[in-house]
Design a protein that fits this description.
Helix content: 40-55%
CATH topology of the largest domain: Rossmann fold
Shape: globular
Structural class: alpha/beta
Largest sheet: 5 strands, parallel
Distance between the termini: 36 Å
Number of strands: 9
CATH superfamily of the largest domain: P-loop containing nucleotide triphosphate hydrolases
Strand order of the largest sheet: 2-3-4-1-5
Number of domains: 2
Number of helices: 20
Order of helices and strands: HEHEHHHHEHHEHEHEHHEHHHHEEHHHH
Length: 420
């Protein structure tokens, strides 16, 4: 693998790396021209697009960085933590108001089509002086949802809209089954009538998103074209990281770059997270192994605060399960081999131990086919680090930690091991 030569410059700038948040326009963003073109095309043609991919692959950043521009009415609705249909309506209308009020022409003179759209919503309180003041009444009915969606349609008569539902799977996963099916059914029926609105959907639960858009029994079956959002090719991400470090006079060597990929895995978010800490633990000049060791040490301490809480709240069986998955995440948890390795008597006891870590906002594991793995590679790395310090937590793990990828990580864990 080769990279263009980028000579570092002797200029100190703020840390350019961002993780754990959406990369809005103006933030350092690794170009993804093919995907950006498809998102742009869907927006320009009032199309329907569902972004499919694993967690932390940059789906939200791809959409918002591409479409959240001053000349476009872009309505981004994050459904994370959704609790009710009323909550959905509140978020939709509030985000519509924010998006429209960002346009000066709208703020000066509310268009008639939008006045009509808002006026027919008896469930909201209007305050035209402050553009719109939204207060949903308790207990939304089907008609309330329809009127809220009709607000979008009427607003689009003034100017075409792009509506982005992020974490769309929350409707299916967080609402009671009856409410979820009700809302999905109404959404499907109304959205298909909106000719001047582009709809984009994304979510961090790939399996649920696939179920929503590809299962024949789903209301949203084949309603949006799928767009796979996978890892950024190392060649492209490598160029991006090298150039960002060079802006601050830091020289990212090929060896250090490959270590970032090995430690952070395929997620652009995790790669930027490690790069962020490497920046903070280095000075202008070549980035050496000691710099990366310090960065990993800081990162493990950061992850460790959360990890210790997870272990403290877990039962002994659940702790064994977490350590076993960390060491053998390539193996199916339903096998007798895994069960014996983790110290369980029956497969049902393994299933019971796994279940709490797959659900809710604090889930740390995810299913990939018949396997279970950590959602975050750094949490997995911390668990293996804990086992190195306390082998008695899972005695069967010791031989595996001395070989393979676990041994390859040892040079980078020096500072983290000292801190234990």
């Amino acid at each position: 693998m080769t990279y263009n030569n980028v000579m570092p410059i002797a200029t100190e700038i703020p840390n350019p790396f961002v993780f754990g948040q959406v990369l809005l326009p103006g933030r350092a963003f690794c170009p993804r021209p093919t995907l950006e073109a498809k998102v742009q095309s869907a927006a320009d043609t009032c199309g329907r697009l569902v972004l499919l991919g694993d967690r932390r692959m940059g789906k939200s950043s791809l959409v918002e960085h591409t479409l959240d521009t001053p000349e476009r009415v872009f309505v981004s609705i994050d459904l994370r933590g959704l609790v009710s249909i009323e909550d959905f309506i509140d978020r939709l209308l509030l985000k519509l108001e924010i998006a429209l009020s960002a346009h000066k022409a709208f703020a000066r003179h509310l268009p008639g089509a939008l006045k009509d759209a808002l006026a027919h919503l008896s469930e909201v309180k209007l305050s035209l002086h402050g553009v719109v003041e939204l207060t949903a009444k308790p207990k939304a009915k089907a008609s309330t949802v329809i009127r809220a969606l009709e607000t979008l349609e009427r607003a689009s008569r003034w100017r075409s809209l792009v509506v982005f539902f992020d974490e769309f799977q929350e409707i299916a996963e967080s609402l009671p089954e009856r409410d979820a099916q009700h809302l999905l059914g109404v959404l499907r029926a109304e959205i298909q009538r909106h000719e001047r609105i582009s709809y984009l959907f994304a979510g961090s639960a790939r399996s649920t998103m696939l179920e929503l858009f590809t299962a024949e029994r789903s209301h949203f079956y084949q309603t949006a074209a799928p767009l796979e959002v996978g890892p950024i090719p190392h060649e492209d991400m490598g160029e991006f990281l090298i150039r960002q470090f060079a802006r601050g006079g830091r020289e990212l060597t090929t060896e250090t770059l490959q270590a970032i990929f090995a430690l952070a895995g395929e997620s652009p978010n995790d790669q930027q997270q490690l790069a962020y800490h490497l920046w903070t633990q280095s000075t202008p000049g070549p980035l050496e192994l000691k710099d990366l060791q310090r960065a990993v040490g800081i990162l493990m301490a950061e992850v460790g605060r959360r990890a210790e809480l997870i272990l403290a709240e877990a039962t002994p069986a659940q702790r064994r399960l977490l350590f076993a998955v960390a060491v053998r995440d390539s193996q199916e948890t339903a096998t007798d081999s895994f069960r014996r390795f983790a110290g369980f008597g029956t497969n049902s006891s393994v299933t019971a131990a796994v279940k709490p870590f797959l659900q809710g906002q604090q889930a740390v594991l995810e299913k990939r086919g018949s396997r279970v793995r950590y959602r975050e590679p750094f949490l997995r790395l911390w668990m293996t680090l804990k086992l190195r310090q306390a082998p008695s937590l899972l005695p069967n793990a010791a031989p595996l930690l001395a070989t393979g990828e676990h041994a390859l990580f040892l040079p980078y864990l020096t500072e983290a091991l000292k801190a234990q």
